[in-house]
Specification:
The chain is mainly alpha-helical. The protein is built from eight helices and no strands. It has a domain of about 100 residues: Orthogonal Bundle (Rna Polymerase Sigma Factor, Chain: A), CATH 1.10.1740. Helices cover about 60% and strands about 0% of the residues.
């Protein structure tokens, strides 16, 4: 039986924290591999929100983020047998989502500005307000472009901390590294981002 799509949900813009399920993830995966497609649903329900948040903030487009998140779950379901049982499911599917986002960004013919809030009408807003919003959108585009240039280990901690809003402890657990290493990578990644955004070359 094939998995069709994640359940629909209203995604919140508030901070997202990973939930610890009462049923062991390895058992859910084992049941799914044994043919129980319904066992995949708790994994979707547990992780679709933080993964959508990552995709939405990387892409700047909620519809694209929904497509990417759905695609990631579908790919994860199909390739579930390759999931490393020693790692958390989130770590594995998170990597799929980030790769899908990067592919989407690379596939764009040009880096388009982040869509403005549909509630903003440039015919009703003061010119200064519209300009501020446009400048913010341009900054977001530059940040996403700079992210593409970061090494994978630095990009991971930036995305997990600032896009998924995970704690240092959660990031350390997901990546299997000490918290002090997370903080060190974040420091280096932020420095590199600042240099890239300032147009510096190393």
């Amino acid at each position: 039986m094939c998995y069709n799509s994640p359940p629909s949900a209203n995604f919140s813009e508030s901070a997202v924290y990973l939930q610890v399920g009462t049923e062991d993830e390895r058992e859910l995966i084992r049941r799914c591999l044994d043919g129980d497609a319904a066992a995949f649903e708790p994994l979707v329900e547990r992780y679709h929100r933080p993964l959508f948040r990552v995709a939405a903030r990387m892409l700047g487009d909620r519809e694209e983020a929904r497509d990417v998140t759905q695609t990631a779950f579908l790919k994860a379901y199909v390739a579930l047998a390759t999931c490393d049982g020693e790692r958390r499911f989130f770590s594995w599917i998170y990597r799929i989502v980030v790769n899908e986002c990067l592919n989407t960004l690379r596939g764009r013919r040009s880096m388009q500005p982040v869509p403005l809030d549909p509630l903003i009408n440039d015919q009703l807003q003061p010119a200064a307000a519209v300009q501020d919003t446009a400048e913010a959108a341009e900054r977001h585009v530059r940040i996403r472009g700079a992210l593409l240039q970061l090494p994978a280990d630095q990009r991971d901690v930036i995305v997990m901390r600032h896009f998924a809003e995970l704690s240092y402890g959660e990031i350390a657990a997901e990546l299997g590294i000490p918290e002090k290493t997370v903080k060190s990578r974040l420091f280096s990644a932020r420095q590199r981002l600042c240099q890239l955004l300032a147009g510096e070359r190393i």
